[in-house]
UniProtKB/TrEMBL annotation:
It comes from Streptomyces tropicalis. Gene3D superfamilies: P-loop containing nucleotide triphosphate hydrolases. Keywords: ATP-binding, Nucleotide-binding, Transport. Residues 274-300 are annotated as: Disordered. Residues 18-255 form the ABC transporter domain. InterPro entries: AAA+_ATPase (IPR003593), ABC_transporter-like_ATP-bd (IPR003439), ABC_transpr_LolD-like (IPR015854), MacB-like_ATP-bd (IPR017911), P-loop_NTPase (IPR027417). This is ABC transporter ATP-binding protein. It holds the Pfam family ABC_tran. One of its GO terms (molecular function) is ATP binding. Transmembrane segments: none annotated. The keyword Cytoplasm does not apply. The lineage of its organism: Bacteria, Bacillati, Actinomycetota, Actinomycetes, Kitasatosporales.
Length: 300
């Protein structure tokens, strides 16, 4: 049983699809050190849709990368299911990721020379695994891709490409799907569709999804929103709505404004970011993020 002081969303270890204790990540050394994650304790409950939100630079992508074993940690421990991944060798980590984790990124990362079906089964092919045909059929039908399987990415709309990326993430029936701004490159309708599919993946297919987003409307599709600020999980919200998430995000903006002086360019930009995110649920311009990274993680 979680104690009152437990982290938001805390669950017993056996119900956690991923878990971290004291997770700390520092980039750089000496004066240029950035503490991206500051002793984070987090539990990702199995069979739930968890959203991770927070101001630009708060550590959302870093948290996702460390939980997924895409990045090393500076201190602390991380588990995927019952397996501790901190301390695993590269090869073991690669195999574990390949077998047990699905990924969706803002840029769809499809291979242009392969058709949709080949893209969907690519991770399985690389792993030398045979797809479970029944499962694959369910995923393809759930995502409405049946009549697009022979199309190459260039012959698909952005929304269809993201649906292919979603099917690829689901194809191996992973224990956990990590989605980093999966609607970031889509118009609002296509974005809503993808969020609906992620929701269905949890409700109908029993999957576990963790999604990093800037968009309160997107976070409203989740079961639990974890709020990050300055590398720490500072709050959690069950049964979120776009309005309640937006209100919570505004409080970050207010705090930031107080630190930087009311009416400062930083405060105005931060408030503008959130307001814009709420107004345009699925359209996020990477150029508007304060550090200019736009949460883009294509390089991983
Ligand atoms: N490879 C890196 N080298 C140095 N600093 C980094 C690196 N990656 C991230 N950081 C820094 O770590 C902090 C957290 O970054 P992170 O990308 O996790 O934040 P985020 O909340 O995902 O931001 P955004 O919403 O803008 O995508 C930021 O200060 C960022 O500049």
């Amino acid at each position: 049983m979680p104690t009152p002081a437990a982290a938001p969303g805390a669950v017993p270890a056996e119900r956690a699809a991923a878990r971290a204790r004291g997770l700390t990540k520092a980039y750089g050394t000496g004066e240029t050190t950035v503490l991206a994650l500051d002793a984070v304790d987090v539990d990702i409950a199995r069979g739930r849709f968890t959203a991770v939100m927070g101001p630009s630079g708060s550590g959302k992508s870093t948290l996702m990368h460390c939980l997924a074993g895409l990045d090393t940690v500076s201190a602390g421990r991380v588990w995927l299911g019952g397996t501790e991944i901190t301390g695993l060798r590269d090869r073991e980590l690669t195999r574990l990721r390949r077998d047990r984790v699905g990924f969706m990124f803002q840029s769809f990362n499809l291979v242009p020379t392969l058709d949709a079906l080949e893209n969907i089964t690519l991770p399985l092919d690389i792993a030398g695994r045979r797809p479970d045909r029944d499962w694959l059929d369910r995923v393809i039908d759930a995502l409405g891709l049946r009549d697009r399987l022979k199309h190459r990415p260039a012959q698909l709309s952005g929304g269809q490409q993201q649906r292919v990326a979603c099917a690829r993430a689901l194809a191996s029936r992973p224990e956990l799907i990590f989605a980093d701004e999966p609607t970031g490159n889509l118009d609002s309708r296509a974005g809503l569709e993808v969020l609906g599919f992620l929701r269905d993946a949890v409700d109908r297919l029993g999957q576990t999804v963790v999604m990093v987003t800037h968009d309160p409307g997107a976070a409203a599709h989740s079961d639990l929103v974890l709020f990050l600020a300055d590398g720490r999980i500072v709050d959690g919200m069950e049964h979120p709505t776009a309005e309640s998430v937006l209100e919570r995000m505004k409080r970050f903006d207010a705090i930031r404004g107080a630190y930087e002086g009311d009416g400062s360019a930083g405060a105005a930009a931060a408030a503008g970011d959130t307001a814009r995110a709420a107004a345009l649920p699925a359209e996020r311009d990477p150029a508007t993020s304060a550090d200019g990274t736009g949460g883009a993680t294509e390089e991983v």
